[in-house]
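DATA SHEET
Item: assembly model
Revision: 1
Owner: S.N.
Input lines:
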Amino acid sequence: MIRELHNQLVSGAVTATTLAQKYLTAIEQKDGELGAYLTVSRESALEKAASVDESLKRGEKIDLLAGIPGAIKDNICIAGERATAGSKILDNYIAPYDATVIERLKKSGAVILGKTNMDEFAMGSSTETSAYQKTKNPIDTERVPGGSSGGSAAAVAAGLAVWSLGSDTGGSIRQPAAFCGIVGLKPTYGRVSRFGLMAMASSLDQIGPLAASVEDAAIVFSRIAGLDARDATTQSWNGKPFEEYLTGDVAGLRIGVPTEYFSKELDPRIRQATDTALEHFKALGASVHEISLAHSQYALPVYYILMPSEVSSNLARFDGIKYGLNINDQKDSTQETSGLLETYLDTRRYGFGREVKRRIMLGTHTLSAGYYDAYYRKAQKVRALIKKDFADAFQKVDVIFSPTTPEAAFRFGEKTADPLKMYLSDIYTVTANLAGVPAISFPIGVIEEAGKNLPIGGQLMGKWFDEETLLRAADALERQFASQKSN
Amino acid sequence: MLSEEEVKHIALLARIGITEDEIPKYQRELSAVLDFFHELEAAAIDDTASAGDIVGITNVAREDRALDFGNSGKEAIKKNFPDSKDGFLKVKSVF
């Protein structure tokens, strides 16, 4: 879709301004019902579009992404724009600087339409923990779009943005992409700079693209990837755009299928869809191999120890002092207080929602004296074993295939009463974050629920810093599905 | 299950104000997740080193140098101050 729009811009069939206006109008008409956006930046979007049109008029060569409208998850900073991360504690926060990914997107000429809704500080799997609004799944508005990048996924699926950025700590790009029937990529840890992304769990967070096709995701990804002096975990990259690897050729590719991800409890309709996908891969000349990721059974408890531990530390900065909400009302508190302590307690009590408070408290507990060894230290060790499983598997195969989620999009309120139930929806996605490997979700079929065709996603996980192979495989399968459809 | 006192203690360490009637819910919810962590007890980790980092990165040091954000940058930061006096961030006294 991006390439097509780019060609139209270059040929003069459409201007960047009319394209931006078209999307802004669609947002005006549809987003009241959908709730994908928290902020719409009409003026700056049109300004950027006009500058792209100027370049075209002068006969300058423009980037593939120039003039193509997209949306940004609200935990990523854009200078001068509100950034709430879905939390009341940042209700009035105006970001003073651009995140590295934004700096790069601006340089490429991309048009940014606005900021999208999300679970508060990216903590959730349904976007229901946002302090502002519900985001509905465009496929079935009685269901959640997934989370935490639910607004980013819904915006693309509903045609309210061509592409978007999300962040993925345990599945927050891939799960909503699967629920909304689009493509979502979590890059290798260290592939994309996190500078300007509000930290949730620093050893797991990565920014990545959501888009309608694998090629579109690759185009956006190429514009944000690479070394950044402001994020010391980033690695250099040869700079060859990832979209140039999409040859459709997967002959000889070795695909691993982990037995642990296909248990007896897996919904047979999802198993059917994954079987079909594997048949397609075989038809294209790839080979399929059974593998074991034995320690994946511990991935969820490891994740739910490490992530809240990092959360408790990262979110200490929201204390009512330097920015954001500041409350000191000294009402019915259980704690003994003085002036400054009262400010901390009240600001965080009123500013954070329940899920965020739960995770901060959980992390505070697992890191506290007497519990550190039993929880945090142990979890770090098991994390090393999970990583080793992947290293061993990648001796034998090039990519690993599984479902993205154990089920299709669920209804609003279905899991909010029981936090643990919500956590289980991350079962297939958290391992990629724990191991640091790249992973992509893309549509592999639909299942029918109450008369609606709900999309389901397939997940490919790749070797560290080998997004090329991952994208090439996902793209080849996407083409195969498309050609089946047209036949 | 975590006791009332434990929940109060954790909340204070976490700097989160809670009321008496919230305590039972936190007791239940936090305990349910902590129970879930028992699954890790079956994992054999005796000889395993901790996962310090996951992609083989090494420390990167930069020159210890302050970056000047300029006047507009300073104003953008100051605009977010909840409370200020004479252009300075105002904080409650610590002692």
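QC remark: The beta strands of chain B are 84-85, 88-89.
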